């Protein structure tokens, strides 16, 4: 693979030099500090672009020889340049319409939640549902769910759903309207359940992976298709404003693929979007395998020339650490934080090994990246074991198998991932926002291999940084912030909100590693390493100009770095102040 990549770069370099013999550069940026993030992390002064591709990087005098009468020159005046940053995990299509019906405030306390729901009771008719999604209990001061009684007290005449991923807290009317009582059971084969009071046997209002049994009818206003497309444009511009030029959609439907394609056709796409198509893991296994094979026949999987392309498939393997249902190797432990009453409870695993293996095999055989929402260390090991079994007969490395989230790990899991060629798609903002609650519940020692980034780099496992952006437009106001400089700072410092000290600083990255985490590592993880991720001749001209040198500035200044300019395919798509 390395020889092939080097050959590609050699071809492009030779070709571009030949072209430049008669064709001057379209754009030259010069007198800057350009971090190419190539293999040696070389630093250069200038860079030339022709069309959408880089044709030269080097010293000012050498690169400026490539200018012609129509070449646009940009004097960087010493400014710092990086490759366009890459987010390995986002849900842009849902995020951009979150607040279409009404603004949703940020929440820090249970009282904030109750105040919001009470305000909604004055807008929503009695008997109609009030739904609040993805306000995670790990990010509330009280570190717990709002109780059934609290929800009853402020909304007795409205069914209320407080939903956090696969889990939820609901009030009495929501339970009653949905037929969830002391005798409630999920369908055979479903892994979820309703928590029940150990003394009375009545539902507490906490639902584990079974909120789908609620008979929810929402009355919020829905956008037209034209309004949805416009919201996408607004979000993409905001991505550009924080230096993002590539965003992986990690749960994409056919309808959303069509939207991205239309935006590209209309010339309104200012980010690359590698797509991971969603599929359900329930039902007949032969039908599931057929659906996976269908993804490999998608035109955007076969055509790898454009900014929108299909790279793989995704499903869900376990619950969440933010909600108390991630599948762990050891029991969670009784917890007021997560409302856990069973001392043997380990979380929820959605797919047994004998069903997971044929799904992975179907993806690998069709050269699709397989990934799954996989949070707990029990789930991480379960997915690695499935990869291991498939690898015995069908080598998996070429398909770029992945683990999405991969928060709780072990050293042996990292070693296994490196040996198999399994990439890790990790969200540092979760460390920043959730460490306080995680330490309060698990204790410091059990979090030794929580997001073990240094170990990943040390052992050769490819880890890339994402946000899991799923709500709101705004890099720091979204429930999972997508500002990559907050993520970079977090990986370097291992510091967290509302938490004194550092979470296992031995797992911190260097500045160069943290930059690779959001550039070349993500490019490899998303099967785009020959196109983006570093600033080298032949690659796409995606790059950003910053207001500070993040390699040398005080470490705490990194998180507030500002992007002055963002270029996508050599075109200026963001300028600070515009």
Q: Care to count the β-strands? A: 23
CATH domain fold name of the domain at 87-93 and 224-318 and 350-533: TIM Barrel
**Uncertain residue ranges:** 1-21
Strand content: 15-25%
User: What's the CATH first level of the domain at 87-93 and 224-318 and 350-533?
Assistant: Alpha Beta
Name of the CATH architecture of the domain at 87-93 and 224-318 and 350-533: Alpha-Beta Barrel
Shape: globular
Total number of helices: 18
Kindly state the percentage of residues in helix: 25-40%
Largest sheet: 8 strands, parallel
Distance between the termini: 42 Å
Structure classification: alpha/beta
Radius of gyration: 24 Å
CATH superfamily of the domain at 87-93 and 224-318 and 350-533: Metal-dependent hydrolases
Strand order of the largest sheet: 8-14-15-16-17-18-19-20
**Please, what is the average pLDDT?**
94
3D architecture notes:
- There is one protein chain.
- The protein is an alpha/beta fold and 578 residues long.
- Among the domains are: 87-93 and 224-318 and 350-533, Metal-dependent hydrolases (TIM Barrel, Alpha-Beta Barrel), CATH 3.20.20.140; 101-213, Diaminopimelate Epimerase, Chain A, domain 1 (Roll), CATH 3.10.310.70.
- The protein is 31% helix and 20% strand.
- It contains 18 helices and 23 strands.
- It has an eight-stranded parallel sheet. Strands 3-2-7-21-22-23 form a six-stranded mixed sheet, with helices on one face. A five-stranded mixed sheet has the order 9-10-11-13-12.
- The two termini are 42 Å apart.
């Amino acid at each position: 693979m390395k020889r092939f990549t080097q050959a590609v770069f050699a071809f492009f370099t030779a070709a571009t030099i030949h072209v430049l013999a008669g064709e001057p550069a379209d754009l030259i940026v010069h007198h800057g500090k350009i971090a190419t993030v190539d293999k040696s992390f070389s630093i250069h002064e200038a860079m030339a672009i022709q069309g959408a591709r880089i044709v030269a990087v080097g010293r000012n005098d050498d690169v400026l020889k490539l200018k012609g009468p129509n070449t646009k020159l940009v004097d960087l005046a010493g400014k710092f340049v990086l490759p366009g940053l890459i987010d390995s995990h986002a849900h842009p299509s849902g995020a951009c319409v979150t607040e279409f019906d009404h603004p949703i405030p940020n929440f820090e306390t249970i009282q904030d939640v109750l105040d919001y729901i009470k305000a909604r009771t004055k807008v929503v008719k009695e008997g109609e549902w009030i739904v609040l999604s993805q306000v995670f209990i790990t990010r509330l001061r009280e570190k717990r769910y709002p109780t059934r009684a609290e929800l009853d007290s402020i909304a007795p005449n409205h069914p209320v759903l407080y939903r956090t991923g696969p889990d939820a807290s609901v009030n009495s009317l929501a339970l009653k309207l949905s037929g969830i009582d002391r005798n409630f059971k999920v369908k055979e084969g479903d892994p979820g359940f309703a928590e029940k009071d150990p003394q009375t046997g009545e539902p507490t209002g906490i639902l584990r992976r079974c909120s789908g049994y609620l008979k929810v009818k929402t009355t919020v206003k829905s956008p037209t298709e034209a309004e949805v497309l416009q919201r996408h444009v607004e979000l993409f511009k905001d991505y550009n404003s924080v230096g993002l030029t590539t965003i992986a959609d990690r749960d994409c439907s056919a309808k959303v693929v069509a939207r991205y394609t239309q935006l590209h056709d209309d010339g309104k796409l200012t980010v690359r979007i590698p797509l991971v198509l969603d599929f359900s893991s329930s039902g007949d296994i032969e039908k599931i395998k057929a659906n996976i094979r269908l993804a490999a026949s998608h035109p955007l999987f076969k055509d790898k020339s454009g900014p929108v392309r299909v790279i793989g498939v995704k499903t869900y393997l376990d619950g969440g650490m933010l909600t108390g249902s991630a599948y762990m190797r050891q029991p969670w432990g009784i917890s007021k934080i997560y409302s856990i009453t069973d001392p043997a409870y380990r979380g929820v695993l959605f797919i047994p090994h004998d069903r997971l293996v044929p799904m992975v095999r179907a993806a690998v055989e069709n050269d699709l990246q397989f990934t799954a929402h996989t949070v707990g260390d029990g789930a991480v090991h379960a997915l690695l074991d499935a990869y291991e079994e498939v690898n015995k007969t069908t080598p998996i490395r070429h398909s770029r198998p992945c683990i999405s989230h991969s928060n709780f790990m072990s050293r042996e899991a990292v070693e296994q991932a490196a040996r198999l060629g399994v990439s890790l798609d990790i969200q540092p903002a979760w460390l920043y926002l959730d460490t306080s609650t995680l330490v309060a519940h698990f204790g410091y020692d059990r979090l030794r291999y929580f997001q073990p980034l240094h170990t990943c780099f040390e052992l050769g496992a490819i880890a890339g940084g994402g946000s899991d952006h799923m709500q709101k437009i705004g890099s720091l106001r979204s429930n999972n912030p997508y500002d990559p400089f907050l993520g970079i700072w977090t990986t370097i410092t291992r510091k967290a909100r509302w938490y004194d000290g550092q979470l296992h600083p031995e797992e911190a990255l260097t500045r160069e590693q943290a930059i690779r985490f959001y550039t070349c590592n993500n490019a490899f993880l998303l099967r785009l390493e020959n196109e983006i991720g570093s600033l080298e001749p032949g690659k796409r001209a995606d790059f950003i100009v910053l207001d500070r040198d993040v390699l040398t500035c005080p470490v705490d200044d990194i998180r507030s770095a500002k992007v002055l300019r963002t270029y996508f395919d050599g075109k200026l798509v963001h300028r600070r102040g515009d």
